[in-house]
Amino acid sequence: MTKPNLDKIKEIAGGTASFEQEMISIIKEELPAELEQYQFHLEQNNFKQTAESVHKLKHKISILNMEEAYATAAAYENELRAENPTSAPAFKKIIDELNAFVKKL
């Protein structure tokens, strides 16, 4: 699986260090709240809201260049909408890895 990295952020920033730092700051600020929201809805077995949380997290997965993980997240989002979240363990690994990476930034 693709490990999270800053390659896509650097590409988008186009060498502008301040913009790169701003994007990183936004991710660091938003990710904990999004993960908390995801966990809350998951524990409540609220499939629709959990799917919405996964949808938001997909953006972080994408911007941190985790292509394979993005595909897993998209499949998981669809499973949640169908109330059959079989990819939950795989998604948990993704968000754990994502969270650990962001904490080190």
Automatic annotation (TrEMBL):
This protein's UniProt keywords: Phosphoprotein
Gene3D superfamilies from the UniProt entry: HPT domain
Pfam name, any one: Hpt
InterPro entries, alphabetized: HPT_dom_sf, Sig_transdc_His_kin_Hpt_dom
HPt domain segment(s): 16-105
Top-level taxon in the UniProt lineage: Bacteria
PROSITE patterns found in the cross-reference section: HPT
A single BP term in Gene Ontology: phosphorelay signal transduction system
Modified residues (Phosphohistidine): H55
Nucleus as UniProt keyword: no
Molecular function per GO: protein kinase activity
Key word Nuclease present: no
Name of protein: Hpt domain-containing protein
Origin species: Leeuwenhoekiella palythoae
